[in-house]
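DATA SHEET
Item: assembly model
Revision: 1
Owner: S.N.
Input lines:
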Amino acid sequence: MSSRDHWGNKLGFILAAVGSAVGLGNIWKFPYVVGKNGGGAFILIYLACIILVGIPILITEIYIGKKSQLNPVGAFRFFQKGKVPFSPIGYAGVLCGVMILSYYSVITGWICHYLMLSFRGFSGTETEISTIFDHLNATPWLNVAWHTFVMVTVMLILMKGVMKGIEKASKILMPTLGILLIVLVCYSLTLDGMKDAWHFLTYPDFSKVTGGSLLEALGTSFFTLSLGMGAMITYGSYLKGDVNITKSAVQIASVDTLIAFLAGLVIFPIVFSNGLEPSAGPGLIFKTLPVLFAKMPGGHIVSIAFFALVLFAAITSAISLLEVAVSFVVDEYKFSRIKAILIMGTVIWVLGILSAVSSWNIGGVPFLDIFDKISSCYMLPLGGLGTALVFAWAISNEQKYAEIGSKPINKILLFAAKYVAPLLLLVVFLREIGLF
Ligand code: PHE
């Protein structure tokens, strides 16, 4: 075990964890989910979910990883007390990561395609530009080619190791992402639509909030913080020495939330300046934005910066998704890191082909949607629930306080992890499967 790779320093861990958290969930999903749910009021609910459930579970996962120094399966086994096995929570997490990466890589491939098109510049009529997406979707070889490119890139980064691969990539990509985002926010500040966008994002109109909004807020917060499938357990397992877990979790969640909000602040002014509706759905960044990039002054450069930013965010998340599966194979089957990456990368690549060929479906529902639904609506909340229950009932308060500290803030967060988070997750899950 002494051969386990570790982060070079605390900043490396924070940047890698932020890299995992900040991804398509923040820049692609969050803005359109906010758009669909009416803006400011939804953001308030989302913030409540981050504070009451997200941060407590994030603390839990980092703790479980750091204490056990193992992959999710080994980590849950490490904490097992009685006869009931805990490791299935870890297995489900690894499976969930495999499933998410299989389609995440396909969507990241779309981003690569749009980045390439950005260099040429978007032009043509509105219909022409918005059909780029339909054309891409209807061309399986192109989708598979980009998916392959993304998987190979992620595998190559992982082959360099935890410190020289993941940490180094995060240390380059995350600050670049931050700079690109600030530049884009400054650009959006100059647009007429900024006032409407600010109002839309901050004015709580509760009339648009439905019962489903809470579910969507909780689901999105889980997805965007990379919780419920062992990514943060895996990253926590590469920590050693004295680390303030609560502080790290708050930092990671704050940066993640801030970036989601800023992404909204980039996208909505562009949308409003052109008199469009914010509720365009998943096509928001692939169909709506390119049309606007073609029209606006400086749109060429803005679109390059925008898609590069999304690509960096997605790559660092994809890295963490593959790392979960790799650490599992390395720890449990004692495979070399390279062999584990080749095997798991190939398995995920093959599975991803199902999503890349968009005409393949089950009962009319494309594989990408099926995998997304199963993983983010069912497996993540269930995984989070399992993690919270193990943390709450199999680990004594003394053990937790010894690692996390017993200041009032820690006690409050541990209380939330023990009671509030599992309860809310249970409610969400039961609603999701239609029990009430
Ligand atoms: N958090 C990532 C995002 O927001 C997605 C992700 C989910 C990454 C689960 C790792 C684990 O896009």
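QC remark: DSSP finds 18 helices and two strands in the chain.
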